[in-house]
Amino acid sequence: MAGISLISRARHRTRRVDVMTEEAINYSRYREHFSADQINAVLHHGHIIPVSRRITSRFVSTHHPGWQYNELVAVFNAAGVRVHGGGCGGYCAGGVKYLHFDDQTSFAVERIDKAEVTQ
Q1: In terms of residue numbers, what domain contains 90?
Q2: pLDDT tens digit string along 45-68?
């Protein structure tokens, strides 16, 4: 790993965590736990109208104290759970159950188990 930057190492570590089996991951070690619905609620506020009227900053400070909208979007992007489009800040990728994270370098994505999907 000589010559690899800290950012690359952090990304490498987070990729390894995502590949591990869910039994091996202790999700309680993360500070934040967002469901797909919570991710969508944050991203829904990414449209220019709520941003310009400060609705977005009030929503985030009320529901997720200590965070700012752009910080959360950076975490969503780093974890690969944000899909661009949808007429606003994007939406949560399919198959995501929870995103567990401390910041944009420390996270784990919990996926929906195939047994949970009803057809």
Answers
A1: 6-116
A2: 999 999 999 999 999 999 999 999
